[in-house]
Amino acid sequence: MDKLMAGTLEVGGITIKSLTTLDIFRNKNLNIKIREGNPTSFVYFLSPQSIYSESFLIQLVFADERISKVILRAYSEIEEDGMTIAKRHRKWLITLLGEQLGIKNQIEFDWGVINPWVDMRRSQAEIHLTYF
């Protein structure tokens, strides 16, 4: 619980936090795809990863080789609409952060911001962790 408040995620044996760099993912057999660009690079986990009791599809965004954003989308083997996924995200956030923080649309910390995001037109939902 305290790890998410500190901006830390444990994914596939790797700790992701505000100081994480792209080098951690290079030349590792982690079932990932790296799309390198300058100044922005992306890391995609090719299979769902468990993060604090929930499975997510994960995309990491790096700016100048340093983590800038983590995008999480709850994974399910059955197709779910955006609102159902958003409810799962909210429940996960409430479990980890408590109800007072978990229900907010923008949760601010010293390290960055957590934004639960929903696009009803596209029926999509994600959780964005943006590092300062």
Structural class: alpha+beta
Helix content: 10-25%
For the largest beta-sheet, the strand count, sense and barrel status come to: 8 strands, antiparallel
The beta-strand count equals 10
Strand content: 35-45%
Order of helices and strands: HEEEEEEEHHEEE
- Output the number of helix runs: 3
Uncertain spans: none
Give the distance, in angstroms, between the N- and C-terminal Cα atoms.
21 Å
Shape: globular
Radius of gyration: 14 Å
- Arithmetic mean of pLDDT: 94
How is this structure best summarized?
This protein has 132 residues and is of the alpha+beta class. Helix content is 18%, strand content 42%.
Annotate the secondary structure layout.
Elements: H1 2-5, E1 9-11, E2 14-16, E3 32-35, E4 40-45, E5 49-51, E6 54-63, E7 66-74, H2 82-97, H3 99-102, E8 107-108, E9 112-119, E10 124-131
Antiparallel strand pairs: 1-2, 3-4, 4-6, 5-6, 6-7, 7-10, 8-9, 9-10
Describe the structure.
- This protein has helices at 2-5, 82-97, 99-102, and strands at 9-11, 14-16, 32-35, 40-45, 49-51, 54-63, 66-74, 107-108, 112-119, 124-131.
- The mean pLDDT is 94.
- The strands form two sheets. Strands 3, 4, 5, 6, 7, 8, 9 and 10 form an eight-stranded antiparallel sheet that branches. Strands 1-2 form a two-stranded antiparallel sheet.
- It is built from three helices and ten strands, in the order αβββββββααβββ.
- It has 132 residues and is an alpha+beta fold.
